[in-house]
């Protein structure tokens, strides 16, 4: 089973990394691929460039064999669309291998506005992670899709290549990249919200307006 977890990772933090490990354990897979998006179609400008976000992410997973970075969206020109990424992966994996994408309820809530969203269940399973404060609108398309395609347990995902939606409710760390960017811009420390390797690099390069002087 191949599992991808996409995001802006602007910057990557312990909330992302803990979730990726939880998913890896719960699905019983050896590795989860973190896929940083190039130009997020649904967002404004990012705080750091694609290359900088990728560099920080690479530092973050350097010592963790259960996590890897998949750079494919940064290598494509133009916007990052999940359907394109999944189609590319499906071509590489062949028709029978289970392929899983992980999203939070915040992102899945707008699923029916994603490009070619109706194709996505034909390409992959979806693991929807419940995030406090981001409940799905009960009468909305994403909630209906979840009810129609719901997998009863993680094992079900191994039985077919795509098409199921599994809702998981793992413990989550209350950390957001937005909060981190605000904190750094205010001149406050973001240490312990992300691996030290990432925090030190942000300081070293002065990313997100971080002060490069003084003690780390
Ligand atoms: P921002 O605050 O800039 O929106 P973010 O911290 O929410 O960023 P993203 O890169 O936008 O991070 O998120 C990528 C994925 O990670 C999304 O599916 C989101 O639901 C999930 N995610 C973000 N923060 C956490 C967290 N603390 N715990 C678990 N999942 C998270």
Describe this structure in words.
The protein has one domain (2-174): 3-Layer(aba) Sandwich (Rossmann fold). 36% of the residues lie in helices and 13% in strands. It has 9 helices and 6 strands, in the order E-H-E-H-E-H-H-E-H-H-E-H-E-H-H. Strands 3-2-1-4-5-6 form a 6-stranded parallel beta sheet, with helices on both faces. Strand 1 (2-7), helix 1 and strand 2 (32-36) form a beta-alpha-beta unit. The chain is globular. The site of adenosine-5'-triphosphate has 18 residues, from helix 1, strand 4, helix 5 and helix 8.
Topology:
Blueprint: E1 2-7, H1 14-27, E2 32-36, H2 50-61, E3 67-69, H3 72-75, H4 82-93, E4 99-104, H5 105-108, H6 120-123, E5 125-129, H7 141-149, E6 165-168, H8 177-185, H9 196-205
Parallel strand pairs: 1-2, 1-4, 2-3, 4-5, 5-6
Helix pairs in contact: 2-9
Bound molecules: adenosine-5'-triphosphate.
The averaged pLDDT comes out at 92
Low-confidence stretches: none
Main β-sheet description: 6 strands, parallel
Helix content: 25-40%
CATH architecture level-2 label: 3-Layer(aba) Sandwich
Shape: globular
CATH class: Alpha Beta
Count of individual beta strands: 6
Rg is 17 Å
CATH topology: Rossmann fold
What can be said about this structure in brief?
The model has no long low-confidence stretch (mean pLDDT 92). The chain is built from nine helices and six strands.
């Amino acid at each position: 089973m191949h599992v991808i977890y996409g995001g802006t990772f602007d910057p990557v933090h312990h909330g992302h990394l803990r979730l990726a490990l939880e998913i890896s354990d719960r699905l019983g897979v050896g590795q989860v691929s973190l896929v940083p998006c190039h130009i997020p179609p649904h967002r404004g400008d990012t705080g750091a460039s694609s290359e900088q976000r990728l560099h920080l992410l690479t530092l973050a997973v350097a010592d963790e064999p259960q996590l890897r970075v998949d750079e494919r969206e940064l290598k494509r020109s133009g916007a990052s669309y999940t359907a394109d990424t999944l189609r590319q992966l499906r071509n590489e994996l062949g028709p029978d291998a289970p392929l899983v994408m992980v999203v939070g309820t915040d992102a899945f809530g707008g699923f029916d506005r994603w490009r070619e969203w109706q194709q996505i269940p034909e390409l992959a399973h979806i693991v929807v992670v419940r995030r406090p404060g981001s409940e799905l609108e009960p009468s909305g398309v994403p909630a209906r899709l979840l009810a129609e395609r719901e997998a009863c347990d993680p094992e079900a995902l191994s039985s077919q290549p795509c098409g199921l939606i599994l809702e998981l409710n793992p413990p989550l760390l209350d950390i957001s990249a937005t909060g981190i960017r605000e904190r750094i811009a205010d001149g406050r420390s973001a240490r312990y919200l992300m691996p030290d390797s990432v925090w030190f690099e942000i300081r070293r390069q002065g990313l997100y307006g971080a002060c490069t002087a003084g003690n780390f």
